[in-house]
Amino acid sequence: MKKICRWIIWIGVILLLGFIMSIIVYFFYPNVSVLKKQNPQKTSFMTYRMAEWSAKNKKVTLYQTWVPLNRISPYAVKAVIIAEDDKFWDHEGFDLKAMQQALEKGLAKKKFKAGGSTITQQLAKNLYLTPAKNPIRKLKEAILTWRLESTLSKRRIIELYLNVAEWGEGIFGIEAAARKYFGKSAFTLSAQEAAQLAAVLPNPRRYNPTSNSRYVKKRAGIIYRIMVQRRVAIPVYEEVMNRPEDMGNVEEGDISSEWAPPDADLSVEERLSEEYDGSSGGGEVQEVQQDDHASSES
Length: 298
Prior knowledge:
Elements: H1 2-24, H2 44-55, H3 74-84, H4 96-109, H5 119-128, H6 135-151, H7 154-164, H8 174-182, H9 191-199, H10 214-229, H11 234-241, H12 252-257, H13 268-276, H14 283-287
Helix pairs in contact: 3-9, 3-10, 5-6, 5-7, 9-10
């Protein structure tokens, strides 16, 4: 009996050491410094999606065209940062306030789904991990996030993110998204189009940036108005505000003239929550669930 107990203890110790080593290895591998000059050919997330399609016998073509940051519309860069990680330029990979708010929200609803991930955290997951929702994956993500922030410039991090983020079934990167939804290059995206693309990042396979979805229109409108209030999109704003208010679909007039938020310092999610607190008509906006990609996922 004692011999069996010793074997059990040894097996437990070996398993524990194996687990610890599987975490420690992420302090050294993969080599993130290569990203300073090299663009990743295929991310872990792309490989995951391809395996997913194969298992379901789905024929999906993966579209991605790499573009440098100077060939991406400044509107798109700013819209995505506003939507996904408004403190991107200030933090060192982690937004503790957003993480706290996400935790409190999850506890209040007695379910923990999402919230608080920065762009760097999302990049770490997209490049090297999977959508698995467990503490081990989050621990690996935290280590990789710290390494990315310690190794790469903010400019390079946002360039990488914009080129690997998922924007629909088989659509990866801002250039492929711009071509798919607006028939133009990422460089020529308008402020309104950029806001629409940024609006769907929490669940890019569920929502289409050009659809009549109430959630997309609402979120895109808030993103655009923040851009206007911060004097990012004033020339376009002045042009749009002179257009008729009854324009159809998700036109520029729709997302620029509605739902004017009063405080440019509030995040997109805070504004959505503020507008729907106590409302019984939240509908689609209240029920939105983040995709596995989870740009804001914790």
